[in-house]
Structure prediction request, 243 residues.
Amino acid sequence: MQRIGETQKTGQLLNRMFKDKKTQSSKIVIKQMDEISKAELWKIFTRTFFNMYGKKLKQDEDALKNLKVIFYYFLRDEKFFKCKNLRSDITTPSLKKGLLIIGGYGLGKSNYFEVFEKVFQNFPSLRFKFYTSKELVQNYEMCQTPLDKEWFFKDVNRKYMFIDDINSERLASNYGKVDVIEEVLANRYDKKLTTFASCNYTNSDKCAQQTLEDLGLRYGGRIYDRLHEIFNIIEFVGVSYRR
Ligand SMILES: Nc1ncnc2c1ncn2[C@@H]1O[C@H](COP(=O)(O)OP(=O)(O)O)[C@@H](O)[C@H]1O
Ligand SMILES: [Mg+2]
Prediction:
């Protein structure tokens, strides 16, 4: 038996991770991200993508560009700062901030983060939970008592979380209207928790800067200033895979 935290060879790692595909159970635990190389993470990622969606990950230029910047971020690799689709002109990049993925439809924003969620179940230092913004609105609306609301905010105050498709959700109705994602983001900012999120362009010009402005308007001035502190801005490129 290998001890927890010990670096393992890729083959062993993959075999053990995918030994039991049916239950998707995996006993392997790796403590630190720096114990795994880019190549190892890539193998695990592509294999997990295949297992989850029953098709091979296309590795064209755009897909590689989109994934590279996220890989470097999670691997804490300085090459992150050199990636072209990291919009350092909009916000100052930092490995301490979270990620906001902006881009058109069908580029893999949701699926890639579902895969990362699965992969990082084996990396406690990066484990995160995937929510859609609509799901959070529904969860909030189901809260019937102040205690339920307390539980809701406890749940969304986890160390890392991903919120898919922000700005696509409606306001929550629960004894008055609440902009749940605004509340969640403001709470997480106050508690210095790291947030990953995705969002589609808000404008037909496909302008990331304008999209950020629009998110600021949607969630209020309080959030607009903070968006720059909460997120690195990553712009996904390419043409929809849904065509
Ligand atoms: N690199 C890729 N290789 C193969 N299929 C992909 C790739 N990226 C995305 N897809 C597929 O394209 C579709 C749209 O992906 P999705 O993650 O929903 O996009 P988005 O969230 O950006 O709108 C999904 O069926 C997904 O599996
Ligand atoms: Mg999506």
